[in-house]
Design a protein that fits this description.
Structural class: mainly alpha
ANK repeats: 6-33, 34-66, 67-99, 100-132, 133-170
Mean pLDDT: 97
Pfam family, one: Ank_4
Number of domains: 2
Keywords: ANK repeat, Repeat
CATH architecture of the largest domain: Alpha Horseshoe
CATH class of the largest domain: Mainly Alpha
CATH superfamily of the largest domain: Ankyrin repeat-containing domain
Protein name: Ankyrin repeat domain-containing protein
Strand content: under 5%
Helix content: 40-55%
Number of strands: 0
Shape: elongated
Radius of gyration: 19 Å
CATH topology of the largest domain: Serine Threonine Protein Phosphatase 5, Tetratricopeptide repeat
Distance between the termini: 59 Å
Number of helices: 12
Length: 197
Amino acid sequence: MTEFQLHAAAASDDVAAIGQLLSNGAEIDTRDKDGRSALLVATHGNKVNAAKALIEAGADVNLKDNINDSPYLYAGARGHIEILKLTLQHGADLKSTNRYGGTAIIPASERGHVDTVRTLIEAGTDVDHVNNLGWTALLEAIILGDGGQRHVDIVKLLVDAGADVNLADKDGVTPLSHARSSGYDAMVGLLEKAGAK
């Protein structure tokens, strides 16, 4: 059961054990019952050293589990910035989507992970990707955010990156309408300045 020892080593951030197991022939991308690779286990716990060791040894940063999370997508969604940057340096698929049909920038925007959103924009992520709910990163930052400074910063980042400020949800409600109805004045100002209607 060498494979699951690798998962355990990843969960406990034990780089020495990871190296030993891999040199003894452990399969780096073996999945557990939930479809998770050791790298995804490390990412879940934000175990940066284990993740780095696994990625540098060739672990697949895009390998999805049973609920369509990959190390790249999960690091982006949770704001695990160091692991996210490692996945981006090792072939992260910017177009890959989670179980909601969203790219990493959408949950990052919803959860207020400013540095993550900035990193994903710099990596070339499509800021106007629409998920299965009919929402973009901009819409999620407004609708599911709390209107606080982190979400205002994210709206500004997205607008500055060229996000379509008039791309409405599937009910035809625009980002500006959502921001107004929530009373998010700072967001309203940013959107209006960018030509939102």
